[in-house]
Amino acid sequence: MKHSGCAVNKERHFSCEDCNGNVSGGFDASVSQIVLCQNNICNQAHMNRVVTHELIHAFDHCRAHVDWFTNVRHLACSEVRAANLSGDCSLLNEILRLHFGLKQHHQTCVRDRAIRSILAVRNISKEVAQKAVDEVFESCFNDHEPFGRIPHNKTYARYAHRDFQNRDRYYSNI
Amino acid sequence: MAEGGGWQPPRPCEAYRAEWELCSSAGHFLRHYYVHGERPACGQWRRDLDSCREWEERRSAEAQVTRPGVPSPERPGTSPGARDAGRRGRALKKGFDSSLHVCWGACFDLYPLKRSLRESEQARVRAARKHGLVWAPRQSPPADWHLPLPQDNDR
């Protein structure tokens, strides 16, 4: 975030609030702030995942002209990326939700959760949300910025950070 | 002119080793299958690791031969290091002229390694960028990112 010009200040860019329903968090693009639903976040692992998810939205807001409010495809793309890269759809989390599947199941989960997230913030039909996700899925599922890979666990995250620190050497020698 | 002009492998060899080991692990196999529905391909990491190590070994040998004070291959010195350098020099033995710091065959041997590593990494970058973007990138961050919240201004 800092490298992209959006250094994060936790007092300015995070807000802990009570939320309706079972929403865990959100990104308010109108004020560039992440909202964490303190009444719905259950444990540290859940907190880590929610913060990562919302930071991906914040990162997209920082690096691109995302039209959050009138372009469903833009919203769908960021939700696909957040579901893909935050750990929302890890094998363990899906099993805990009693969603059983192995071969390529991660992508099924990402699609489903992206649609759910869109419907939670936009008054549109499920078909419209699904169509938007389908249209952007291939591009956005394969956009792994800023990690360069899906950070499945701390090892992958550590390697991603190592690559980030090595970027000058990398791009000057390829 | 010496090979490379300052070029080095895009990643340290240790990074290639770590990537190859991660890719080859059972955990990665499972995660990759869960995400992509197929087994991961790890051979390129191994080839890159081999190229990187070979590049480092040959570069190190070349540096030994070109080090100031190290005798040329034609005139091996008396110290063990110089004798080793001499042996390496003779092993390279493809027309090295230490006085001009010009190397011929030994340096050209480095070029295929450099090309292999560069092509491999360029292919990775192309694969990562082949999908078009849904949105337009910004030239600068959002104007309000660092501004106080609206309610903070009203106080």
UniProtKB/TrEMBL annotation, chain A:
A molecular function GO annotation: metal ion binding
InterPro entries noted in UniProt: Peptidase_M76_ATP23 (IPR019165)
Annotated GO biological process: mitochondrial protein processing; mitochondrial proton-transporting ATP synthase complex assembly
Hydrolase as UniProt keyword: yes
GO cellular component, one term: mitochondrion
Keywords (A to Z) from UniProt: Hydrolase, Metal-binding, Metalloprotease, Protease
EC numbers for this chain: 3.4.24.-
Family, as annotated: Belongs to the peptidase M76 family.
Identification of the protein by name: Mitochondrial inner membrane protease ATP23
Organism: Balaenoptera acutorostrata (Common minke whale)
Organism ancestry: Eukaryota, Metazoa, Chordata, Craniata, Vertebrata
Gene that encodes the chain: ATP23
Automatic annotation (TrEMBL), chain B:
Localisation per UniProt entry: Synaptic cleft
Superkingdom of the source species: Eukaryota
Principal place of residence: other
Pfam family, one: PANTS-like
GO cellular-component term (any): synaptic cleft
InterPro entries named in the record: Pants/Emi1-like
Location of the region described as Disordered in the Swiss-Prot/TrEMBL record: 58-90, 133-155
Family named by the database record: Belongs to the UPF0545 family.
Name of the protein: Synaptic plasticity regulator PANTS
Species whose genome carries this gene: Balaenoptera musculus
